[in-house]
């Protein structure tokens, strides 16, 4: 693929930055040596150097080295980072990828004062095992560069291209969403413990069951209710359990949580 020989700088080696780096290398399409990761506290990522990644606390050096620059700091840390790299960002050389929630392409180009191409990407932490659902959007990037970013994130999961105004919604549904499903699995395992299983086996059974449910939808391209109809025997125990959950607000809680996350995602960045 086209990006294979390109160098990538990941500015902000935290949860998502490191997950991205590891996923790219695990995919076999990139070598650790092609990736330079920055973090203010270098000791926190020292072990990555032993795995062959380049590490530094110098964002300017990392930007100079790479052609693809991933902005992976918190929204509230972004302006300081952009100010630090402003001089060395070169629109003729660099393609910026921002994973920062709630930060528009125009926020970044305005802060830099440069018409550099920016593609926003909203992955989730399953990127570390190449199972991310990543949403991609841009206002100013060429279709060639958008394709380049889609190909990059296709190595670590699935991608969909969306309009930029839907990025906060994508954040809630997919990036935050992984936490929502994990909490649902944890709750299921707690129920499993109460009805007789040891904690570890209950968690394994719940996780594999959740994986099966997701795979049914993805493989059959079916609607959840179609699959649910196959489980709920008349007067059976599944419908009894499901209805009990709905009486307690199961669907409503998820819908309200996703809506709340989406509102919050839109308010994370303050352009001071
Ligand atoms: N955690 C997740 O699942 C997802 C996070 N995001 C977005 O990714 C971004 C990062 O989020 P997380 O990884 O969760 O946060 P994090 O706090 O784990 O990572 C941010 C890292 O950047 C480092 N950092 C801050 N300023 C820096 C600077 N000037 N130079 C170098 N390193 C610096 C911090 O020390 C930290 O290690 C956020 O904007 C978030 O909205 C997007 C999708 C999913
Ligand atoms: O919780 C957050 O703000 C970040 C963005 C999406 C996932 N984690």
Question: Can you describe this structure?
Answer:
With 272 residues, the chain is an alpha/beta fold. The chain has two domains: 2-163, Rossmann fold, CATH 3.40.50.720; 177-265, Orthogonal Bundle (ProC C-terminal domain-like fold). 51% of the residues lie in helices and 14% in strands. The protein is built from twelve helices and eight strands. It has helices at residues 15-26, 46-50, 59-65, 75-85, 105-112, 143-154, 167-175, 177-194, 199-220, 224-231, 237-247, 250-265, and strands at residues 8-11, 35-38, 54-56, 68-71, 95-98, 117-122, 132-138, 157-161. The chain has an eight-stranded mixed beta sheet with strand order 3-2-1-4-5-6-7-8, with helices on both faces. Strand 1 (8-11), helix 1 and strand 2 form a beta-alpha-beta unit. Helix 7 (167-175) crosses helix 12 and helix 8 packs across helix 9 (199-220). The relative contact order is 0.10. The mean pLDDT is 95. It comes from Adhaeribacter aerolatus. InterPro entries: 6-PGluconate_DH-like_C_sf (IPR008927), NAD(P)-bd_dom_sf (IPR036291), P5C_Rdtase_cat_N (IPR028939), P5CR_dimer (IPR029036), Pyrroline-COOH_reductase (IPR000304). Its main location: cytoplasm.
Q: Walk across the major sheet and give the strand order.
A: 3-2-1-4-5-6-7-8
CATH architecture classification of the largest domain = 3-Layer(aba) Sandwich
- Topology-level CATH name of the largest domain: Rossmann fold
Bound small molecules, deduplicated: 1,4-dihydronicotinamide adenine dinucleotide, (2S)-3,4-dihydro-2H-pyrrole-2-carboxylic acid
Sheet having the most strands: 8 strands, mixed
Q: Shape from CA axes?
A: elongated
Structural class label: alpha/beta
Strand content: 5-15%
Binding site for NADPH: 59
Domain Pyrroline-5-carboxylate reductase catalytic N-terminal: 8-102
Domain Pyrroline-5-carboxylate reductase dimerisation: 164-265
Keywords: Amino-acid biosynthesis, Cytoplasm, NADP, Oxidoreductase, Proline biosynthesis
């Amino acid at each position: 693929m086209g990006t294979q020989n390109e160098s990538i700088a990941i500015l902000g080696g935290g949860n998502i930055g490191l997950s991205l780096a590891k996923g790219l290398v695990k995919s076999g399409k990139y070598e650790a040596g092609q990736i330079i990761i920055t973090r203010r506290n270098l000791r926190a990522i020292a072990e990555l150097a032993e795995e062959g990644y380049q590490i530094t606390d110098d964002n300017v050096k990392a930007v100079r080295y790479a052609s693809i620059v991933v902005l992976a700091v918190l929204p509230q840390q972004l302006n300081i980072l952009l100010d630090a790299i402003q001089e060395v960002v070169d629109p003729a050389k660099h393609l910026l990828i921002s994973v920062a929630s709630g930060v528009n392409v125009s926020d970044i180009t305005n802060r830099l004062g440069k018409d550099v191409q920016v593609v926003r990407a909203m992955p989730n932490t399953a990127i570390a095992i190449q199972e991310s659902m990543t949403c991609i959007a841009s206002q100013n990037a060429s279709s060639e560069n958008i394709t380049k970013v889609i190909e990059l994130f296709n190595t670590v999961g699935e991608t969909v291209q969306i309009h930029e105004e839907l990025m906060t919604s994508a954040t809630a549904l997919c990036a935050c969403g992984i936490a929502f499903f994990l909490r649902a699995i944890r709750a299921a395992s707690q129920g499993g413990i109460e009805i007789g299983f040891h904690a570890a086996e209950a968690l394994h059974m719940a996780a594999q069951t959740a994986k099966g449910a997701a795979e049914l939808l993805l493989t059959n391209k079916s609607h959840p209710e179609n699959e649910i109809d196959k489980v709920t025997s008349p007067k059976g125990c599944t419908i009894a359990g499901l209805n009990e959950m709905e009486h307690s607000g199961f669907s409503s809680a998820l819908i309200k949580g996703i809506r709340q996350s989406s509102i919050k995602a839109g308010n994370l960045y303050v352009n001071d």
